[in-house]
Structure to design on (122 residues):
């Protein structure tokens, strides 16, 4: 599992995964995801190059989402192919995190959500 992390000028952290999100894949990215969950405020996870998602991969995503939500961060998943999206929906992950067709749509949704929250606080 390859993992590429970038950050936009607007403060959105993008994680692009490439490979199988199976046991080995989850083990390869667990550590970096823990760090991201503790530091990122807006996180987009691009799964467009993930062709298989196992339960351990779902667990990694779920732990990341719960950690971020607990500390007030926002997370979205982008580009999941049909089989991967089906797994996310069957596990109920989509009830916790928004699923978007691409990274651009996911980033836009997170920025709007953060802006809405900031306006409520003001």
């Amino acid at each position: 599992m390859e993992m590429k992390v970038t950050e936009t000028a607007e403060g959105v952290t993008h994680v692009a995964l490439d490979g199988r999100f199976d046991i080995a894949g989850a083990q390869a990215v667990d550590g970096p995801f823990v760090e991201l969950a503790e530091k990122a405020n807006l996180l987009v996870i691009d799964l467009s190059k993930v062709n298989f998602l196992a339960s351990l991969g779902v667990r990694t995503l779920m732990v990341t989402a719960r950690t971020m939500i607990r500390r007030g961060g926002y997370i979205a998943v982008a580009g999941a192919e049909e089989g991967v999206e089906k797994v996310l929906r069957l596990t109920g992950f989509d009830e916790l995190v928004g699923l978007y067709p691409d990274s651009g749509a996911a980033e836009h949704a997170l920025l709007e959500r953060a802006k809405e929250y900031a306006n409520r606080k003001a």
Residues 2-121 form a domain with the Transcription Regulator spoIIAA fold (CATH 3.30.750.24). The beta strands are 2-7, 12-21, 42-53, 74-78, 98-100. The two ends are 42 Å apart (CA to CA). The mean pLDDT is 94.
